[in-house]
Amino acid sequence: MHSAVSTGAYLHHLQIGSPDPARLAAYYRDALQTQVSSVGGAILCTGPGRRTLFAPGQAGALQYSAFACRDAQALAGLRAFVRDNGVALEKSPSPLFGDDAFGVRDPEGNLMLFGLAREEAGAATGIRGPIQHVTVTSTDLDRMEAFYAGKLGFAVSDRVRNDQGVVTTVFFRCNHEHHTLGCFLKTQAGLDHHSYEAGEWITIRDWADHLATRRIPIVWGPGRHGPGNNLFIFIKDPDGNMIEISAELEVVHDRPVKEWVHEPYTLNMWGPAIMRS
Fold it and tell me: How far apart are CA 205 and CA 208, in angstroms?
């Protein structure tokens, strides 16, 4: 059996709902240098290492997050691990995964898929920025940590606590990257943001210059997060979804969980923060 972190899983793609998927896909084509096609009743935007699907639905609804495991043995081991922990398995709806993929639902009802990536034809071009992590909001982070760490086997990298000792943020990983999944405490559960990893600071400059040519404003940043130590900029798509372009995210091999104070400095060491609670 394999826990999530032992499979070397990584975020492969997302599907997000929209009342106008075509409009959203056109935005991602321009903003994130993707190619647009139709697949499985959704619109697929693809670029170098980045894949996002848009399907009819409520604006900002995270219809599923899909994590790819390194090989069939790892996927089978994770399936056994999750099943033995009493988690109900669902059939994967993703057209980008093979038939052996499966899904689970977290305490907030988010559908998380695990599978093997299908071979992709041709090499996509554009600025470096593979999809890297997704963050959600939750009304109960204790239940979320018990599920992701206890039932699926994600590792906890960092926690943020307020003055009362209540956990307001948890960062989870399923490989050596500081977080592939984040959870923020909020009064309403949902999608918070998703992120693309530029690799180096100079590539964030390239992204910012590209966005400027498209007249797309940066709505937060440049800045540096405390947890993960990554540099970032944020933009907002037409449905209001927050999109992060990040660089130099911490690589974690083996260390204790870090605890951070719930304050603006933790979210942005360089300036203003967007506080969720």
Answer: 5
